[in-house]
Q: What sequence folds into this?
């Protein structure tokens, strides 16, 4: 962590108020709320946002109307614009949004529209670009566009399958987007945190998830094409041990980075 850089923060992706309480009680600074973690995350309902906001930890809400790619048509952008207003009215501190063109560049018009909806709902709303940046044709060049758009932060793995493999590009994004907080996310493990902080990121983001146990039912019947087994046909919950381990690794790495030498 460089001189003058603020204390790095820990963000945990959660899908419920119970997950938000686990994250809060084991060291998270904020949470990102979504549904469908197994699909990469989808927009939660207004009622779910309200219940998680009541936990008290600052809540960022993912606004993504469907799984799949990040190329959205006019109807989808209109829907997500309404979702942005809804989740902020329900207690979100900010939103996590994004859109790309078919050529893999940032859809500046769509992103600006979503940003404007957030700031109209709450002038202090934080606006984060989500991991659409990691499948952009030029992730670093995309990051360089964000200061002019007035976005708060960007969530990224550095364009790699996992953030621990994208260190060089993460550092390049930090340099390319002054004033935008670069948050490392995507396959982050607590052991990766020292190297991620050394790359200059402002925060780390983990899902810290584990599969919930299968409960009830006399026999398992698949309900979707991806339901491979009874053990996999379940939902994810927040793992307290992983959150606590990440908090400890983050604090230790930050302390080491600012400690004076011998």
A:
């Amino acid at each position: 962590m460089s001189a003058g850089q603020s204390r790095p923060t820990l963000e945990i992706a959660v899908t419920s108020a119970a997950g938000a309480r686990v994250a809060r009680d084991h060291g998270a600074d904020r949470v990102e709320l979504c549904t469908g973690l197994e699909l990469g995350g989808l927009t939660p309902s207004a009622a779910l946002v309200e219940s998680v906001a009541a936990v008290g930890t600052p809540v960022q809400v993912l606004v993504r109307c469907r799984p799949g790619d990040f190329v959205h048509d006019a109807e989808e952008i209109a829907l997500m614009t309404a979702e942005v207003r809804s989740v902020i009215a329900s207690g979100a501190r900010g939103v996590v949004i994004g859109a790309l063109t078919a050529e893999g560049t940032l859809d500046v018009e769509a992103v600006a529209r979503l940003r404007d909806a957030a700031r109209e709902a709450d002038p202090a709303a934080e606006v984060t670009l989500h991991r659409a940046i990691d499948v952009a044709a030029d992730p670093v060049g995309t990051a360089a566009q964000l200061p002019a758009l007035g976005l708060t932060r960007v969530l990224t793995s550095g364009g790699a399958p996992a953030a621990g493999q994208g260190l060089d590009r993460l550092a390049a994004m930090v340099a390319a987007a002054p004033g935008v907080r670069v948050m490392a996310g995507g396959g982050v493990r607590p052991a990766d945190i020292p190297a991620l902080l050394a790359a200059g990121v402002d925060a780390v983001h983990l899902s810290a998830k584990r599969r919930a146990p299968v409960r009830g039912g006399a026999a398992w019947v698949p309900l979707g094409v991806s339901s491979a087994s009874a053990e996999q046909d379940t939902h994810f919950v927040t793992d307290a041990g992983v959150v606590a381990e990440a908090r400890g690794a983050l604090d230790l790495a930050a302390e080491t980075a600012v400690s004076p030498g011998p």
